[in-house]
Amino acid sequence: MGKVQYDPEIVYVQKLYFFLFLATITMLASVITVWRFGLRYALWVLVSGLCISYLAMLQKKDFNPPDKRITAQRMAHAISQDSSPLSIARFACQLYYYFQEPTQAITLLEKFLPSHAPLLCSTLGDILLKEGNTKRALYVLRENPYALVDPLLLSTQARILKQIGKTHEAAKMFEHSLNLAKQNGFPQSGAHWITQKMLTISYKASIHHSLADCYVILNNLPQAKRHYRAGNRLLLDCTLWRHCPSDLLHSAKNNNDSY
Predict the structure, then answer these.
(1) Which long-range contacts does 188-191 make (Cβ < 8 Å, 24+ apart)?
(2) Backbone φ and ψ of 138, nearest 5°
(3) Nearest alpha carbon to residue 227 among 239, 217, 240, 242
């Protein structure tokens, strides 16, 4: 069984929690230091501890998934208590990522597709895209009645369009997705509100970066740089920052200098 491959947005949330865990330990150590040695040493512990916590977060690249037996038990309990589209979408994600059962995950999601739940439909489209079935993924997403009003459905469609070479259409959908996300947010995933907030920020950053990639392909470097920076500003982890390819920047500078 291969290693679990999380989406970058999920990895970023895990890294944030890792940083918060280390930062909490640092703050506790600072409190103890104030009590035993005074404020000056406590500030030194706090600053150095936060710096070490941040560097540790930057170095963290992957996370071990929960034990498969425990995960299976939790999945069975959750489904017995709640068979809503939201719960089904989470169940299918666990089937796909933890147990690496794409066929079962796709079959389960397709069974509940008539619910038209945006999160469930987007999950199915994302899995189909990862499995290389772009035509079916785009069809499923476009058939959803919320296809043009839900930011998650829009961004998933845009990623498919970008992959099949329809960059101009993809850029428009990414832009529309960002605008709707600012107004209404993304669909609730059933996670804790802190996790939901982190996921929202992570997805917005990802959309900004994907949109910037589209503008690079379309040779619109000013817009590309603007969206790379917008995405970077949302990310605490500087290892996830993106920038315009340096060769394109040099080429654009040389063209400007020639006029």
Answers:
(1) 188/86, 188/119, 189/86, 189/90, 189/119, 190/86, 190/87, 190/90
(2) -65, -40
(3) 242
132-153 pLDDT, tens digit per residue, is: 999 999 999 999 999 999 999 9
Q: Is 3 helix (H, G, I), strand (E, B) or coil?
A: coil
Q: Closest Cα partner for 94 from 206, 201, 4?
A: 4
Q: What is the Cα–Cα distance from 83 to 108, expressed in whole angstroms?
A: 12
Is the CB of residue 212 less than 8 Å from the CB of residue 113? no
- For the stretch 72-108, pLDDT in tens is 677 766 666 767 778 888 888 888 888 888 999 999 8
Query: Going by CATH, does the domain composed of 68-243 fall within 1.25.40.10?
Result: yes
Residue 127's nearest CA partner among 135, 137, 118, 142 is 137
Q: Where are the domains of the chain?
A: 8-59, 68-243
Q: Which of 199, 190, 185 is nearest to 14 (CA)?
A: 199
SS3 (DSSP) at 245? coil
Query: Can you give the pTM of this predicted structure?
Result: 0.85
- What are the helix (H) ranges across 134-245? 134-143, 151-163, 167-184, 193-217, 221-233
Residue 63 CB coordination number (10 Å):
13
